Amino acid sequence: MTKDFQGKLFVFSAPSGSGKTTIVRHLLAQERFNLEFSISATSREPRSNEEDGEDYYFISTKEFKNKIKNEEFLEWEEVYIDNFYGTLKTEVERIWAQGKHVIFDIDVVGGLRVKEKFPEQTLAVFVKPPDINELIRRLKKRGEESKEKIAARVAKAPIEFSKAPEFDKIIKNYDLEVALQDAEDLVDEFLGLKSVKKEESK
Question: pTM of the predicted model, to two decimals?
């Protein structure tokens, strides 16, 4: 693959608890897609099961703000007060240097910013849970966050839902198996693999 390779970008965004991470992990396991996960940077503390450089790049709020000042981010968002998330430009460059396509599991606002910067190369997908009650149930089931943090995520969800029409596609995650197949079909189509498979099956 040439040094100038620029792959596709697959953005999966949704309110927390919608199941986007499960969908992204499933897609990463499909070798034919040649996908690599874009690791986001965040200023929040790691959860018990998270590792630096694998789940996120965990950096201090001060360092995050310095990187914003130096324009090192493709997109960034202050999701909650002093709780920043963002995609470093070097992360996309790292993945393209491997000759792979990039897949993102990011905030709704961040997802739309990636689409804005790479309109032709990006497929932006919004993952929609059945309703707010199901969202709350899933967040509680995680057992990783305080009631206050869950309440903050739930309060933010209606604003995120309102952004859904701005995405290229919406996946309804009411039944996980169906949602996973829908996601595969979308990636297949965007990479132009669907037509190839049809030709081979003739």
Answer: 0.86
